Structures are given as structure tokens and as C-alpha cells.
Automatic annotation (TrEMBL), chain A:
<feature type="transmembrane region" description="Helical">
    <location>
        <begin position="494"/>
        <end position="519"/>
    </location>
</feature>
<feature type="transmembrane region" description="Helical">
    <location>
        <begin position="76"/>
        <end position="100"/>
    </location>
</feature>
<feature type="transmembrane region" description="Helical">
    <location>
        <begin position="273"/>
        <end position="293"/>
    </location>
</feature>
<feature type="transmembrane region" description="Helical">
    <location>
        <begin position="421"/>
        <end position="439"/>
    </location>
</feature>
<dbReference type="InterPro" id="IPR002823">
    <property type="entry name" value="DUF112_TM"/>
</dbReference>
<feature type="transmembrane region" description="Helical">
    <location>
        <begin position="217"/>
        <end position="241"/>
    </location>
</feature>
<feature type="transmembrane region" description="Helical">
    <location>
        <begin position="20"/>
        <end position="44"/>
    </location>
</feature>
<feature type="domain" description="DUF112">
    <location>
        <begin position="33"/>
        <end position="470"/>
    </location>
</feature>
<protein>
    <submittedName>
        <fullName>Tricarboxylic transport membrane protein</fullName>
    </submittedName>
</protein>
UniProtKB/TrEMBL annotation, chain B:
<protein>
    <recommendedName>
        <fullName>Tripartite tricarboxylate transporter TctB family protein</fullName>
    </recommendedName>
</protein>
<keyword id="KW-1133">Transmembrane helix</keyword>
<keyword id="KW-0812">Transmembrane</keyword>
<keyword id="KW-0472">Membrane</keyword>
<feature type="transmembrane region" description="Helical">
    <location>
        <begin position="89"/>
        <end position="110"/>
    </location>
</feature>
<feature type="transmembrane region" description="Helical">
    <location>
        <begin position="154"/>
        <end position="171"/>
    </location>
</feature>
<feature type="transmembrane region" description="Helical">
    <location>
        <begin position="49"/>
        <end position="68"/>
    </location>
</feature>
<feature type="transmembrane region" description="Helical">
    <location>
        <begin position="130"/>
        <end position="147"/>
    </location>
</feature>
Amino acid sequence: MGVFDYILAGVFEAFTANPALVLGPLVLSWPVILVALGFFTGVLIGATPGLSGPFVMALALPILISIFGFTPDALLPVLGFLVGVMKGATLGGAVPAILFNTPGTPDAFMTTLDGHPMARNGQGGKALRVAHFASVSGDSFSDIVLFVCAPFLAISIEAFLGLPEKAALMILSLSFVAVVVGKDTWKGLLAACFGLFVASIGTGTDSYPRLSLGSDVLAPGLPTIAVVIGVLVVGEILVSLQEMYLSKRARRAAAEQLAPGDSALSLAERRRLLPFIGVSMSIGTMIGALPGIGTTLAAAMGYTAGRKMHRGTPAFGQGAPEGIAATEAANSAVSGANLIPALSLGIPGNVAAVFIILAADTIGGFNPGPAVFRFSAEEVNPELVVAFALFTLMVVANLLNWLTGAWFMRLLGGLIRIPKQVLLPIVLLLTLTSVYVEGSAMSDVYILLGFGVLGYLMRQSGVPILPFVIAYILAGPLETAIRNAFEASGSDPWFLFSSPVSLLFLALSAAIVLGAGWLRGTPTPDC
Amino acid sequence: MTPRGHLRNLAVALTGCGFALLALAVWIPLDVDTGVIDVWRRNVRIGDAMLPVFSAAGMALAGAVIGVRSLLRDAEPAAGRIDPRFLAWLAATLAAGLALMLLTGPILAWIVTGGETPYRVLRATAPWKYLGFALGGTVMTFGLIALSQHRPSWRLAALAFVATLVIALLYDLPFDNLLLPPNGDF
């Protein structure tokens, strides 16, 4: 099969392979339905202060796996939903930022600076349109970069890197994530090492499952979904509940809600925004391609770049549409680029990518990494077909975003907000139930809550969560790569230092740890 | 230096180092069958102890640096507050909710059937399958809402009950093969 055959097979797989409804020649497939559902759910959740995309992903993943099962047919609907949520949540975060001066997601904070003043001037609808136009432009650009770069990067890795180099590359990525997330290099390394340790419980190649304490619960290994959701989502819920418990502000009156007002955005106005969008989406895409650096830094850098470019009135911070465009284009451009290391190297760079890799691992049949993009001519590489089907679904989500995103954002502006104090306990029960129905064992719920408390303690102690999660996910592939490299080298104890490339990667890892202060010039506490 | 941030960093360092040393000295030697390097049929290969040993060593190193640094130089303010009263209320609420979830169904089944029909037989039939989840879930949700709102009320209790019921129906009605908590454990 040639390259175009694979692309075509991916498109067909997305649109026809798993039909939900067939009306003559028209086929509506489950992946397309799920990507649409994920997108609208993502916008809704992103627009709800206190919730974010990872919450929905955490809730949905066990449910979707329970519905679709562990079959190859389940892969695209589940991945499609997650991709839809990822795209929708970033867009939705702008709605409350503009209309209520409350960012729906942390990366939408900069949107409040110009979005809310515009809304107060009766231009809320226009601000929403600017946010949508910039967001969808940034997202589409970032996806195109992903489609081009991920296969290219994967092919290069496969062609030039052997087993020791791949192991060294994983160590480099892990060091990078540990150092750039959070404010303290050593706490990041502590979290990453702890993630590796936790992942080693109940696994290994020996007949006795290591570190299982003779327990039947630990012997098959900790349930990955319960561990990841516990530390990421339940920990966040507990921190928010404590904030509300301690804060008197929790009982303050609801913030002023402004009507959307004027919503027209002319072609000339769009053209004026393009330079700001172009710069910001390039910044967001570059930042997104680096593992561990989140949307918040991208938004801040995009806004700063936009402010330097801007001339005239209103100034940035006083209701300039260019300010919204600069922020939204940057934070939306992160999402597609974040999947470059995830799909081409198997290294998740952010929380959304963690859930996509988790879904692929749990369902099976698709192992993100360089092998996915092996263009084998003699026999069909089914993983490559899935990868192109996933790209197709991302295009579907983008088209949906272009066509309906602005309308849906305006619609949400009129919805009544649910108080966070009521919402979070309900989300906790939903999370608990989702995790239970997947394994039908209360031990999964106890593990979920235990890791939730761990996530709470880590957050309150300034120990970043993302290095723990990424190390936990990467531990298996890293150990396998090291074992295979050691055996392939004929048990050479210096196998990791035997080639210049792996030596370079390891030297870079050390340099990153030692030069951490410079790397963290602007901290990015995404997790 | 804020005393709280200073103590928090020391606590992180001690926890990290303590856990790592305990793992290296006790847990790994007693609970992993192969060493860091394993020789099997004259083949030298990496053993199961490699990953936990290296990760524990990394934790010990990171913990030691955090500890020494917090002793030698100014610490940043504590990242967040750990409130023991909140944690106690949270633990009590979750424990009460989970206990009710686990016990309500079997106890009511025992009372109603006089112990003749085990709960396992009833766990997938209405209304039994909903009892534990509805009561435990309502108590848990209401407890947490009341904790964060500081003002429990009948309205919030009703809201918690309705939300729990909606969640139960959301999982139970469309999917025949899914069991609500804790029915899969019986």
C-alpha cells in the first residue's frame, strides 16, 4: 500500500467502518457521532467554571470502554470522543471568560482581560466571535502541523534510532517534563521517580508479580485508569472542595452576567486579526510540540507577543479584540501539536494526550509510537490506518467547530450556571461510579480515592502531578526498551552510552536538569 | 522564609527519602524475586528489581536535595494549605457514604427475606440494586455539598438524592451488563 492508499483507508475507516445508521448510500458512523458528541460536550464543560476537559475525559473513558468493549471497533469512537472534548473544552473556556469575567479553563484567564471589557461595552457577541475565529484558526493550523510532522518524526526515529537511543529519548522526555512542569526541578524529579515506582507494582517479567505484597489486588498491577483519574481529577476536586470550605468568597453573590449584545464580525475586522492569530498560533504550536508545557504558558506568550505588535486603541487590557485573538489562537494551537510527541513517540505531553494514550493502551490494537507510522507496502499496517482515521476525525471536529462553534458559544452564554459547590461533589460521585463500572470491584474505588488524596497532598505541597502521570504511563515502554537494548547489546553494561546519539540524549537530560532555572523562566503550573 | 513553606518542603523531603529508603532496604529485597541484574540459564539480563531500585534511588536523591536546600536557603511560600479539619470531615463523609453503599443492600435483604435469599441473588434486580448506591451516594454527595457550602439544608439533601438517582439511572437503564457500586463485589 502506498501513502495515499493509507490516507484513503483511514478516511474510509472513520466514515464507514463502524456504521451506526445507514440510509442508502449515506452512512453515519459511530466515530463521527462520537466526535460530534465529544465536541459539544467539551464546549459545554469548558464553559462551566470549575470543570475542564480532563474531567469529561476521565468520566467518559471508563463508560465508553464499557459501552464499546475491548474490540478494535471501539478504538475510533473512544478516541474520537476524547479528541472532540479536547477541542471543544478549549473553545468553551472563552465563554464565561468573556461574559462573566470568570475563565472556564485556566488558559482562558488572559481572555478575560479584553473579553470582559468588550462584553461590558455591549460587544460580548463580537468578543465571542473573535474568540471562536482565533481558536478555530489556531486549532486547524496546529492540526495541519501534526498531520505533517508526526509521520515525518516517527519515520525519522524509526530510521535513525536503535533501541538504546529510543530508551535514552524516553529518559530525555521524562527529564524535560519533570523539570518544566511546576516550580521546582527536584520536586518534579521526585514525582517522576515516584510514578515509575508505582508503575512497577505488580508488573515485571518474573512469575511472581513484583512489589505485590502477596495481595491479590496488587498482583495484576494497579488499575491504570483509577490511578490516573484519582491523582489528576479526584485530587483536583478535593483541592477545590477545600478552597470552598475555607473561603468565604464561595458564598458571594453570583457574578454579573452580561448579554452577548453585538455579534457581527466583518471580513475587514477578521483580516485585521490575522497577523495576531498567525503569530500566536505559531507560538502555541511550537510550545505544544514540547512535552509538559501547557496551554497557560502558550496563552501568556501569545498575549505578550500580541501586545508588542498592537498599535492604536483600545489598548490591550481595555477591550482590544486583538488581545482575545492572540490568547485564543495560542492556547487552541497547543492541542493538536501536543499530539505530535504522543502519536509519533508514544510520549504524552499533556493531560489530554495522557487520556488518548490510556484509551489506546486499554482497548489495544493501537500503540502510539514510531511503529504506527511504518508505511509497509507489502502488508497493511492497521495502526497506520487508525492513525489516519484519527486525523480524519480531527478534521471532522474542526469542520464542526468552524460551522457550529460560534453559534454554540452564543447559546451557552444564556445558560444558567451551576454552582461549583454543588457540581464538584456530583462529579466526584460520577467519577467513582465510572471507575467502578469498568472493573466491578470496590478495590478500584478505594485505589481511586487513595490516589485522589495523594494528588491533593502533592498539589498542596507544590509537587507537580503531570511528571508523576507521564512517568507512570511511560514506565512500561521505558523498561521494555531498556531490557531489549541491554539484551541486544550482548549484556553490555554501558549499552546506554554506546552510541553518540544516546549519549547526546543523556547529556541533554543532565543539562536540562542542571539548567532548569533558565528553562523555567516563566513557570507553567498546568497541573 | 515562611515557616509553613519551610516545614512543607522538609516534610516532602522526609517523606520522599523515608519511602525510598524503606523500599530499598525492606520492600524491594523482600518482595522482588530477581535482582537488578539476573542470570538465567547463563544469560545475563535485567531483573525485575531494576526499575523500582532506580526509581527509589532517584526519589532518595531528589528528597535529599529538597531537604538540604530547605535547610540551607530561603524557601518559597507553601504551595497550598493542608487543612486537617477539612481532611477529617472529608474522610468521615467518604467513609460514611461508602459504608452505607456497601452495607445497605445486604442488610435490608437480610431483614426483608429473613436471611433466606442472599444479596448476590438480588443484586441485579430492582429495587435492591439501587438501594446501597442511592443511600450511600446521597449521603456522600450531600455531605460534600454541605461541607463546601457551610449550610446543610433539606433542599441540598433533595438535590443530592436526585443527582444520585439520575447517575444510577444513567448507568443502569441503557446498559444491561453494568453493575452499580457495590453490586459487582457480591
